[in-house]
Amino acid sequence: MTSVLVNGLRRGPGEEAYRALVGHTFTCPTCRAGAPCIAEVRLGREWKKARCS
Ligand SMILES: [Zn+2]
Q: What is the pTM of this model?
């Protein structure tokens, strides 16, 4: 699941932001529990912003 996303992105403008988001979801207990996480929402927003800019 994760490898598919990584392969689809490769090196792009949002790569760093994407790595931060994925790294967070792997280490954050809230995200791992599938609960709403403010930090994850913020990282996801930054990723979208980085992709569009
Ligand atoms: Zn989280």
A: 0.71
